[in-house]
Design goal:
By secondary structure, this protein is mainly α. It has a domain of about 90 residues. Helix content is about 70%, strand content about 0%. It is built from 20 helices and two strands. Strands 1-2 form a two-stranded parallel ribbon. It is globular, with a radius of gyration of 23 Å.
């Protein structure tokens, strides 16, 4: 393994482990910016040492221990926290690697979920909450978050910096909200977990199309949240959506790592246990008897796909109607783009093309690669091959994910060969 490959692997490990390290350090240093810096310091040490010594068997534990040592060093140097250090030093027995959750007496009992609730404090705007948490929990860069929100990188960077300052100035503590406060933060928490899952489901950039570990972590947090807020249908809706989407992982990527679109997937590979769990969660949401919110509606859409034994049996008319309802409760150009695909499958490409053409003037969609990708597919179905080829080329130039770019360039060659296929957004 070359030094560059080792560095790439170390960075990937850091990306996976950073959220857990930051969440654990928050218990002691009580400052998000400091916790993030200490986690980054540990990664820098790994980048210096591991190329010489080799990557340890348990790299996450090594990074955690190193970050804790850095925290102790900081507390020793900080005279204002000297008394606190004496108390915390007894708790941080690095040699015995204690269970950090063993002494919790609250009803959440998970550091990562506690961190989400802290960064979703009402003192922050909804946009700042989501951006900061995605940065800490998912390890996303500001550019990746900007693409997820269809915003500029500078805007996201400012949100994150201001959010950290606001939390520090407001002396927001690393604690579990009471049940009344939990309800106020719930929508932001759900949004963050949802975006965390989406980044794992279709990676914004890199050489892999999916990041399963990120999806698994989001699903784990969602399941914990469903136990806490069991009377909230949207919580069950989000869990249902993530369970059903997760069921497709084995079918979404080929042996060589290439993406496989929804309509081309081998449905025999879909995990039926996850589908059953998802449908059960959806039924719990329905049983609460409240109007369907955005996550319940998206779970209903996912269940339509899950129930179809073959792609040809998909109830596209119902999916189209569900997207229409979703566009009313959660207006978004991305929702409209998905609705356009469903409309095409139900009623024909000319109807969907009208919807997509209306989105072309939306500034937030200017660099969103799926817009030209979907438009190219519609044009190809209508026999407008030259225009379709141009759209696929543009989509390929916009994506940051190498696997997705390869798929889009394949669509370009299909235009030359006159091949038509369904480019359904797998969501």
């Amino acid at each position: 393994m070359t030094e560059a490959e080792v560095h790439h692997r170390i960075e990937a490990i850091g990306r996976i482990e950073s959220a857990k390290i930051i969440a654990a350090l928050m218990r002691y240093v009580r400052d998000i910016g400091l916790a993030e810096d200490l986690a980054q310091d540990a990664l820098v040490i790994a980048l210096e040492r591991w190329p010489r010594t080799g990557i340890p068997d348990k790299p996450g534990a090594w990074l955690m221990e190193t970050a804790k040592h850095k925290a102790i060093d900081f507390l020793r140097r900080n005279k204002r926290l000297s008394r606190k250090y004496e108390e915390l030093g007894r708790e941080m027995d690095l040699q015995h690697n204690p269970d950090l959750n063993a002494h919790l007496d609250d009803y959440i009992g998970d550091d990562l979920l506690r961190l989400i609730f802290m960064t979703c404090h009402p003192v922050l705007s909804a946009e700042a909450r989501a951006a900061l948490t995605l940065r800490l929990l998912c390890g996303l860069t500001t550019d990746e978050i900007a693409r997820a929100y269809l915003a500029s990188e500078a805007t996201i960077a400012q949100r994150i910096v201001r959010a950290k300052r606001t939390l520090a100035a407001g002396r927001v503590t690393f604690e579990v909200p009471d049940r009344a406060d939990l309800a106020l933060r719930l929508s932001s928490v759900l949004e963050v977990i949802y975006l965390m899952f989406n980044e794992g489901y279709v990676a914004t950039e890199g050489t892999k199309w999916i990041r399963p570990l990120l999806c698994q972590e989001a699903l784990r947090l969602g399941r914990i949240l469903a136990e806490i807020a069991h009377e909230e249908p949207e919580v069950h809706g989000l869990v249902a959506l993530m369970e059903i989407q997760s069921s497709r992982f084995r079918a979404r990527v080929s042996a060589s790592g290439e993406p496989i679109l929804l309509m081309d997937q081998n449905r025999a590979l879909w995990d039926q246990l996850l589908i059953r769990r998802g449908i059960a969660a959806l039924e719990r949401a329905r049983a609460l008897g409240q109007p369907m919110g955005p996550y319940v509606l998206q779970a209903e859409i996912a269940s339509c796909h899950a129930r179809a034994r073959m792609a040809s049996e998909t109830d596209w008319v119902r999916i189209s109607a569900l997207y229409e309802a979703l566009s009313r409760v959660m207006p978004s150009p991305v929702v409209e783009l998905n609705r356009a695909v469903a409309v095409v499958m139900a009623f024909g490409p000319s109807f969907g093309l009208q919807i997509v053409d209306e989105l072309a003037d939306d500034p937030s969609m200017e660099k969103y690669h799926l817009l030209p990708s979907v438009r190219g597919d519609f044009l190809l179905k209508l026999g407008r091959t030259t225009e379709a080829r141009q759209e696929f080329e543009r989509a390929a130039s916009l994506t940051r994910n190498a696997r997705e770019r390869s798929l889009l360039l394949k669509r370009v060659s299909e235009c030359d060969d006159g091949i038509t296929c369904v480019d359904f957004i797998d969501s």
